[in-house]
Write a structure and sequence with these properties.
This protein is mainly alpha-helical. It is built from five helices and three strands, in the order αααβββαα. A three-stranded antiparallel sheet has the order 1-2-3, with helices on one face. α3 runs parallel beside α5.
Length: 185
């Protein structure tokens, strides 16, 4: 019974965060741009741009080739017959990682075993990474099928909805199959 109440409280908190994100969507997009500009002034983004972006670009290239779309890859982008998509450090999904970290504070509150907490964190981080790779794949598919405007709309607006759905699914999965209460004793 306590587990169900704790689960409902955690989901309630996650839904509240999701609702607030959707209500404040224009502000969130603007604030994300503001944070990006600050980060760019620190020049730390160069590490991500120079080392992580080429790796993630190759992953996107691999997925696109696996689904039959013939594409070329550069260290910072994907080129198809009718579209070119530039990938920057800001496109990798750091916002969804921050959202995940914020929900971890609420979602992991309670008497859960250390092993199940670690497993939950690893699933969350790995899942968020995979979701972001797939999100970039979808941006490329939008660019190919709907042009630059379609890719832009998905990248800047629908991707936030995808991140929220991922977080909700992740917590459902964690509470249902991963998190275990500590044994009293």
């Amino acid at each position: 019974m306590k587990e169900q109440i704790r689960e409902k409280n955690a989901f309630f908190n996650i839904y509240i965060v999701a609702a607030l994100l959707l209500l404040t969507f224009p502000f969130v997009v603007t604030f994300s741009e503001f944070l990006s500009r600050i980060f760019e002034k620190l020049y730390l983004y160069r590490l991500i741009q120079d080392f992580i972006v080429p790796y993630e670009t190759r992953l996107v290239w691999g997925v696109l080739n696996a689904i039959g779309l013939k594409v070329a890859v550069t260290p910072t982008g994907i080129i198809t017959q009718n579209a070119s998509v530039y990938l920057s450090w800001n496109c990798l999904g750091w916002q969804s990682l921050i959202l995940l970290v914020l929900t971890l504070f609420t979602g992991l509150s309670g008497r859960f075993s250390t092993a199940s907490r670690v497993e939950t964190i690893l699933i969350g981080v790995f899942g968020t990474f995979i979701i972001n790779v797939l999100r970039i794949v979808v941006v490329v598919l939008f660019a190919v099928n709907f042009g630059r405007t379609g890719a832009y709309l998905f990248h800047n607006y629908l991707a936030t909805v995808v991140a929220i759905f991922w977080i909700v699914f992740f917590w459902w999965f964690a509470y249902k199959f991963v998190l275990e209460e500590k044994q009293k004793g």
